[in-house]
């Protein structure tokens, strides 16, 4: 399969600020490709350059076979990018917003289809300013799809939403991919990238520091196994340190975590059972993308 987006050695600075420092990646058709990193890492600059909204200082880009700088008019017709809040006038009604934005494109999806697909029929006559956070995000998704684009870019789509609205928005992003579109998801949410992305580029300080599937990234860091359980009555922490494969034991509040290698779960369970203890919440902790970021940068990436 040939890539729908290919970015090679992209550089961009604003005055003395280096925003993007030699970024390269490829995106395959039909995938959800996440660009994950802390605020200020250069994510928006990268995707806005892909969309032809900013010019690169150097590097080569090919998007749907087009050059985003040279062919920006054609690219606009074939790519959708989520608007930011400030770009929609508060005193327009939902149907007026759709009509206004449809006028920019040669080919459009009928407003009625978008209103139905994105659960906005009931809100068609509401002012933009009166929509809830989740309804505004649904409208932004509808607007990004108004030209039936082949590639859709969502930039911090769920920032500011409550956990339930975030999860519903994730389902909507999957629905967009299921329509056969390629999705670029810019996020600083590790859970979001892990839940949605087929592949993730982790960007830090303008550079791609890792690029793989979520599981590939997690498997790539050599991490000790971790077994956790809540402290049983009369539990002696030292009883764990002698267990084969155990490197250290930590206690935080009423939670015990045992670190080590080999078949740790079985050995810890056996050692506990020998003391007549059977914790109900004995579990193996999985490494996550936060561990990946920490392992690669020495810093925490918090959403
Ligand atoms: P992210 O999307 O990862 O938060 P950005 O691409 O928005 O990162 O920003 C990368 C860096 O470039 C940051 O230091 C930001 O302050 C700076 N920056 C972004 N846009 C501009 C601009 N228009 N003018 C000056 N500096 C900018």
Describe this structure in words.
This protein has 2 domains: 5-219, P-loop containing nucleotide triphosphate hydrolases (Rossmann fold, 3-Layer(aba) Sandwich), CATH 3.40.50; 225-286, Alpha-Beta Plaits (2-Layer Sandwich), CATH 3.30.70. It contains 11 helices and 13 strands. The protein has helices at residues 43-50, 72-78, 94-102, 111-117, 133-144, 163-178, 190-196, 214-220, 238-241, 264-274, 289-297; strands at residues 5-14, 17-27, 32-36, 58-63, 79-81, 151-155, 182-187, 199-204, 207-212, 225-230, 246-252, 255-260, 283-285. Helix 5 runs parallel beside helix 6. The protein is elongated and about 75 Å long. Adenosine-5'-diphosphate binds next to strand 2 and helix 1. The site of adenosine-5'-diphosphate has 11 residues, from strand 2 and helix 1.
Write the layout of secondary structure elements.
Blueprint: E1 5-14, E2 17-27, E3 32-36, H1 43-50, E4 58-63, H2 72-78, E5 79-81, H3 94-102, H4 111-117, H5 133-144, E6 151-155, H6 163-178, E7 182-187, H7 190-196, E8 199-204, E9 207-212, H8 214-220, E10 225-230, H9 238-241, E11 246-252, E12 255-260, H10 264-274, E13 283-285, H11 289-297
Residues 14, 17, 19, 37, 39-45 line the site of adenosine-5'-diphosphate.
